[in-house]
User: Fold this.
Amino acid sequence: MGEVEHQAALGKALVQGLRVKFPDVSFREQTMPVDETVVIMPASLLIPAVKVLMDDLGIWHLSTITADVAVDSGGKAETGELIRLLYHFWCGEGVTLCVELPGLSPEVTTLTGLIPGAAYYEREIYEMFGVTFDGHPDLRPLFLPDDWNEEPPMRDSTAKAAAARGDP
Amino acid sequence: MQITEPTGVWGELGLRCANLVRSVVRWARRKSLWVLHFNSGGCNGCDIEILDSLTPRYDVERLGVLKEASPRHADVLLVTGPVTRQSRDRLRRIYEQIPEPKWVVAVGSCSCTGGVFQGGHNVIGGVDQVLPVDVYTPGCPCRPEAIIDGLLKVVGQIDG
Amino acid sequence: MSKLVVPIGPQHPLLKEPLSFRLTVEGERVTESAMRLGYVHRGIERLCQTRTYVQNIHLLERVCGICSHVHTTTYCRAVEALAGLELPPRALHLRALLCELERIHSHMLWLGVLARNVGFDTIFMYAWRDREIVLDIMEDLSGGRVSHAVNVIGGVRIDLDDAHRDTILQQLDLLEDQVEWLLGVVEHERTLQARTRGIGVLTLADVRRYCVVGPVARASGLDIDLRRDDRQAPYDQMHYEVPVHDAGDVWARTLVRVKEAVESVHLCRQILDTLPAGAVSVRAPRRIPAGEAVTRSEAPRGEVIYYVRSNGSDHPARVKIRTPTLTSLITLPDQLRDVAMADVSVVLSGVDLCIACADR
Assistant:
């Protein structure tokens, strides 16, 4: 039970730290199974928030970055689409920082300056979702073939998935 | 290639020698199949089973099968996995580098048909979309016994 | 001295998977290296969105043929968390049993590959011969040597009776002797040490900067193991050690992995001894309630993380997989710098690359 309280404490500490440092910004806080605190924040605050995580709370392990098309638009992928980036950190418990980017020309500051290990995750999101990472030292496709001339394959996921499924 | 029109005694002798050499080569090829392994997009499952068939329990070396590192030394190309868009040209090039006569064995369900990865944005399909395949060995992953069986089917295809 | 670019791969005898390197060498020393991934990229994350939750188990088992079970375990845990399912303890134990068997199989496979790349073929043959014991156990349990198809959403589909358990315990005794013998070889064999010591060094600072996980991180002195740190059932009831070494070279990784294999044999025995009675699965709904979940597991190569988002239908809206090899790949340019050309194969096999995992 003590462990569980400790976990909640770490997530709370992050939110507390952020609220103290940036009093006029609103953070949304959620929980995800299993034991994961999610803090949703504006994209401009990502780097300062990661600094708080690393310097004040001693969390330095970035598990991965997940990109996701936020609005399940049911086939109408071009309207109101958002790209969510989830930065999964881990230190005995999971803490996820979430930023939401506009679907058209999404752009965010790179994390590689603070965490060089983020380089491949960002390259993958760049090619799969078309998100540009400002200041990334080597923003090239990672997995797709050199002659790939189609759109990023994960972007129109909902529409294509529905078509590919073809279920009655 | 058949040597034709022997002339005289020397020609007769030459023809017999050539036929003898040919049957020795055929015998040698049947007794020492050198294979090259290429993963064109597979999940590792069949690849470890191919390596496994070289190790003590299955030991294909007792049948004269040797895993080779260079296409130029190989008789048989073992391909695992579906062909991805990026590995397609490489697969073709490796096939072209293997000297004639050559055989292609598609190891595992993915390399036979594309298997579970059909429809992937980077997947072309089975190996037969790119190369002529001589032997299909299905299984996901293919067991070492099936791989050995596939190789023996190749031996059966060596003429004579 | 003039520079020369040496291309390696994608078809090459070092690794059984395609990965392409361009090494710039000056004399015998590598000065620069560039890597090309993607030969095995099948777009699995994308395919997941087109299939149902149950079909995805079959697909995700084929992310990687070596650590197939841990992928489905992590995925099923995420889906079960979304559906709010509570698993019977027997199912958790059986899952963990397969995970540990898979760890032994993976580490012995890797030891064989390393031994072959340093020219020690005897150990390659011995390690792979003894690995067959693990494969036999797994085949008896599940019907498959490499892919097991053991997990279902809500539990496992296999069960074992007491007679079967005793058979496995006997096989484990034999396995333990063999793995400990291999550990003795790794610890004392001077030729192996001569090829692997001081090669491919990663410092603790490097490991932290690049967020490296698993045995590579533990061989550099970072004590991280999700089985213990994430307090996962049933590992929280087990007693085992997490081997850590601080040299950070290929030899340290060898030691860490083989010691881990020994610990995994002990873990298997504990799991079998404490196997609770009861059901092995609970009924799972076809449609999974909307939500998102993150799960992590300790695969043989380190932390594997799954993110699953559901939109309430029977198809997941997003499945994200991060495999441990991706974290090690990023350190390769550092490890290859200033390494003799003959040691490149040792460095590459030392990190235990699984390109199928990395490319997905």
Observations:
- Strands of chain B lie at 34-39, 66-67, 76-80, 83-84, 103-107, 123-125, 135-137.
- Chain B touches chain C through 40 residues (CB under 8 Å).
